[in-house]
Structure formats: structure tokens, C-alpha cells
Amino acid sequence: MTYAVKEIFYTLQGEGANSGRPAVFLRFSGCNLWTGLERDRDKGPGGCSRWCDTDFVGTDGTGGGKFRTAAELVEAVARHWPREAAKHVTPFVVCTGGEPLLQLDSALLSAFEAAGFAVSVETNGTLEPPQGSLWLTVSPKANAPLRVLRGNELKLVFPQAGAEPERFAELDFQHFFLQPLDGPEAARHTQAALQYCLDHPQWRLSLQTHKWLNIR
């Protein structure tokens, strides 16, 4: 298949269990919950499109483009990893979007494994992942069908009407994170998430440190 990629860049993972870890971000184009276009800001299930802060439209970002094979895309990702400075470190790629599982298939996952990459996937959980070794982060959205019921971390934007934490507390994940909903009421949402974690110790607070650090 041809892979449509918005951008590829090297940075630190800013949130969740891998927060602070150097990674190459592979942002795929497209999402199955909304178009990413401003005219459709009110059309995503549960209002997720109103607070989505990611540009996943097109292939015009840094390192973006269309890649005809898995090998071609893995080679492009590998060029962003500082191999000479990290000879004894496993290279790490974060596949995100939009919705990466629209495009991440077994051929691409196998190609990353063959190149020595550890692979992380950030998904909305509405599509099944390919078989293989990966770190699976699921971020459920209200009123969207959740089909991925197990993984490494469940990272829930909070608060969301219709996606309250108790709906997911019995699922099979290693880590459970609440991430405060950004926007004009971010401070209030952060305090609410903090208090919820204190009252329900199964949950941990995930802050978007990349925004505080002003990095991508």
C-alpha cells in the first residue's frame, strides 16, 4: 500500500508512560472520526473535533509525503534517529495521527521490527491493531465505538461527557492516565483530573509537557 504521512520529526514524547523519552514521531494523515478541516469542527463524535489540536490533513508537513512501500517509509523515519549518538539505545518511533491504524499494517510493523525499532502506537481504539510487538496507547473518545480493550496504557482526555473514567476502569491495561482537556478551562480541568486521581489511585495524571516546553 501507499502510506500518506503528514510529518516525521524527532522530539521527546510529551505525555503518558513514555513521557520524556526521545522518539521519532510518525504522524499519518487522516482520521476516521473527523476530517480535520475547520468547517467540520462540530462534527466529531462526542465533540472530540472541537478540542483536537493536531493537524493531520495532507502530506505537506516536515518529512511528510507519500511512501510507496514499508521499507521506504522506515528508511525515512530512520534518517531522523541520531544513530551515531545513540549506538546503544533502541530507536523508538511513535506512530500517531489522526488515526494511525488506518494505515499501520503488519508489513510496516514488521519492517520497523527488522530495522530494530521499538514501536508505539497512539490510537482512538476504534480499529484493531496489526499483530506484532508494539506499545499500544488507547485514547477513547465519547460516542465512538471502542474495539481495543487491552493494551499498555489507556490515556483518557478528561473531562468528557459520555467517556467518564469509570467506564474504562475494568479494561485490561497496564497504565491508566487522565489527561486534562486543554483549552480556555485547562486550569480547572487540571485540578479536576488531579483530584480524581487522588480519589481513584488506579489513575495517574498525564500532563502535556511538550506544550510547557514549547517543543513539538
List the keywords.
single chain; 216 residues; alpha/beta; TIM Barrel; nine-stranded mixed beta sheet; 9 strands
Give a structural overview.
The structure is a single chain. The chain is of the alpha/beta class and 216 residues long. The chain has a single domain, classed as TIM Barrel (Alpha-Beta Barrel), CATH 3.20.20. The chain contains 5 helices and 9 strands, in the order ββαβαβαββββαβα. α2 (70-78) packs across α3 (106-114). It is globular, with a radius of gyration of 17 Å. The two termini are 28 Å apart.
Helicity range: 10-25%
The number of domains is 1
Q: Biggest sheet, in brief?
A: 9 strands, mixed
CATH topology: TIM Barrel
Shape: globular
Strand element count: 9
CATH homologous superfamily classification: Aldolase class I
Structural class comes to alpha/beta
Distance between the termini: 28 Å
Kindly estimate the percentage of residues that lie in beta strands according to DSSP.
25-35%
Briefly say what this structure is.
With 216 residues, the chain is of the alpha/beta class. The protein has five helices and nine strands; from the N terminus they run ββαβαβαββββαβα. It has helices at 48-51, 70-78, 106-114, 186-199, 209-213, and strands spanning 3-12, 22-28, 65-67, 92-96, 118-123, 135-138, 150-158, 172-180, 203-205.
Topology:
Elements (H helix, E strand, L loop, with lengths): L2 E10 L9 E7 L19 H4 L13 E3 L2 H9 L13 E5 L9 H9 L3 E6 L11 E4 L11 E9 L13 E9 L5 H14 L3 E3 L3 H5 L3
Parallel strand pairs: 2-4, 4-5, 5-6, 6-7, 7-8, 8-9
Antiparallel strand pairs: 1-2, 1-3
Helix pairs in contact: 2-3
